[in-house]
Design goal:
The chain has 2 domains: 232 residues, TIM Barrel (Alpha-Beta Barrel), CATH 3.20.20; 31 residues, no CATH class. It is globular. By secondary structure, the chain is an alpha/beta fold. Strand 1, helix 2 and strand 2 form a beta-alpha-beta unit. Helix 4 runs parallel beside helix 5 and helix 8 packs parallel to helix 9. The relative contact order is 0.12. The structure holds 5,10-methenyl-6,7,8-trihydrofolic acid (MHF), 3-methyl-2-oxobutanoic acid and magnesium ion. 3-methyl-2-oxobutanoic acid (KIV) binds next to strand 6. Belongs to the PanB family.
Length: 266
């Protein structure tokens, strides 16, 4: 399995880091076989596999359930698990308890948290000192969608951009092993990538990040209707799967399946 040291060296050697979300056994197995560098059990699972309209309904138990399946499918791949909405905001103690539960029960290699408030910088430090590596997440932080007012590009103004650069530096100082940059202008992502020694992983953050992450269902066009602008689909499973199900249904109706070939005899 690759480690944080490998990711650090990839940044230094300008070799891009590949990351993809995964929420279950088969997706994890296929991604590992395809040679992905890291998997993210994202709380986006609330939207793409549970059908919620945001990530705020996702629970610690949801994350553990899915992450365990991902680890069974990809035992040899670095797995990052999102801490879900409000599981790391009530108190330091409660945050550490949730982090321990997720980390111990899923065999994750790191946990991811959104934001860089003073409390979250402290949490990053405490988790790191306790032996739980932290991946940070800045820019569009979907757990705050109701505060931000939508899934929109962030830090377009100089003031908010400068704040993001400072936040990223503080996260690095407090031990974060990588920073996900979501939906920010490419120049800002370039600056952050140059100013940090830890890798940046972009999603809607342009070409200059040290790595890239996308949602599994987006690159496959699988169960999602509208794709964000930053996605490039690599196949269209919606059409493939619908076509296959239609063929199955018409075969059954037309009595073309099952045939003798699929039947048992005495
Ligand atoms: N399927 C899926 N893919 C994702 O990348 C994703 C999720 N779900 N759920 C959690 C968050 C939410 N994300 C999103 C969702 C939508 C946009 C979006 O539609 N953005 C607009 C740009 C808006 C603007 O103009 O600022 C776009 O057209 O891409 C962006 C990020 C990223 N994450
Ligand atoms: C989009 C990525 C970065 C994420 O946090 C998720 O999938 O939940
Ligand atoms: Mg997430």
């Amino acid at each position: 399995m690759l480690t944080r040291i490998d990711f650090q060296q990839m940044k230094e050697k300008k070799k891009k880091i590949t990351m993809l979300t995964s929420y279950d056994y088969p997706s994890a197995k296929l991604a590992e076989e395809a040679g992905i560098d890291m998997l993210l059990v994202g709380d986006s699972l609330g939207m793409v596999v549970l059908g919620y309209d945001s990530t705020v309904k996702v629970t610690v138990d949801d994350m553990i359930h899915h992450a365990k399946a991902v680890k069974r499918g990809a035992e040899n791949t670095f797995m990052v698990v999102d801490m879900p909405f409000m599981s790391y905001h009530i108190s330091l103690e409660e945050s550490l308890t949730h982090a321990r539960n997720i980390f111990q029960s899923t065999d994750a290699q790191a946990l991811k948290i959104e934001g860089a408030t003073t409390e979250l910088l402290n949490l990053t430090r405490r988790l790191t000192d306790s032996g739980i590596p932290v991946v940070a997440h800045l820019g569009l932080t979907p757990q705050s969608v109701n505060v931000l007012g939508g899934f929109k590009v962030q830090a377009r103004e100089k003031q908010t951009a400068d704040k993001l650069i400072e936040d990223a530096k503080q996260l690095e100082v407090n031990g974060a092993i990588a920073v996900v940059l979501e939906c920010v202008p490419l120049d800002l992502a370039k600056t952050v990538t140059e100013e940090l020694t830890i890798p940046t992983i972009g999603i809607g953050a342009g070409v200059h990040c040290d790595g890239q992450v996308l949602v599994y269902h987006d690159i496959l066009k699988y169960g999602v209707d509208r794709l964000p602008k930053f996605v490039k689909p690599y196949t269209d499973l919606n059409d493939t799967i619908k076509g296959a199900i239609e063929s199955y249904c018409s075969d059954v109706v037309d009595q073309l399946f099952p045939t003798e070939k699929q039947s048992f005899k005495n």
